[in-house]
Amino acid sequence: AIADFRELTVTDAEGNVRPASHQDLVRLVNLPLGEARKLANELFGDSSDDAMAHYRQVRTLAEQQNKALEEAKKTGSLKEQEKVETTRKLAEETGRSWQDFTSSDEQKYPFLQPREGDDEWNTKLASSREFVDKAFTANAFDGKLTPEQRAEIIRNHASVRGRAIGFSMLRMENKRLKADLAERDKVIAQYKSAEPGAADGRSAANAPVTAANRLEAIKARMRGMARPG
Fold it and tell me: What is the DSSP letter of 111?
């Protein structure tokens, strides 16, 4: 359009003729229709219709561009609103699920519950909750964090991971120890029932000490020492 427009000629007030320029078109396009027509007649004379054709073409393109920009803004605004609403719903859903699961676990597992009269237990429980909740709510990808703050958050995340893994291992070890203690209690009970005097109500402390008694006691101790763990 600009190349075609430059083929037109402009006649100034002194009668000098020159090729039309980009500035002439800009000057024309920025005027209302009536004023633009008047200026076109003054500058372009018999070619004023051609100049006005360029005027209409540029104005149409400008209107289309403005319309496209407005539509883009509107669409972008709607998308942004949808994004905000989606984020809000996800946050609410996540919050509800978190509360449901944590409350359910705290009611289910005694080791997550306070103990009446046990201040040491309750203090440790409160500090552990605070540590884990803080670790979960912190975001290491926050661009406002300093390197030190980001490192601390990642360190806390790693600590929570280690505690979660360690809990499963300690639980298994505790189960093994309980089974081992139960077996030892069973052996001790059998040993006590076989002690001299047990049948007639006498205690092991009052039973006569004999070589056989000492031998059985030594054997029992050796069996206990031979058991793993």
Answer: G
**Exposure class string for 149-175: b at 16+ Cβ within 10 A, else e:** ebeebeebeeeeeeeeeeeeeeeeeee
User: pTM here?
Assistant: 0.49
Q: Where are the domains of the chain?
A: 2-83, 118-192, 194-229
CA triple 218-221-222, angle to 5 deg: 85
Tens-place pLDDT, residues 185-226: 888 888 777 665 555 555 444 555 445 555 566 566 556 555
List the alpha helices (DSSP H) in the chain: 2-5, 22-29, 33-44, 48-108, 119-137, 147-193, 211-226
Place of tokens 């669409």: 75
The Cα-based distances of 149 to 53, 142, 158 in angstroms read 64, 10, 14
d(CA 194, CA 197): 9
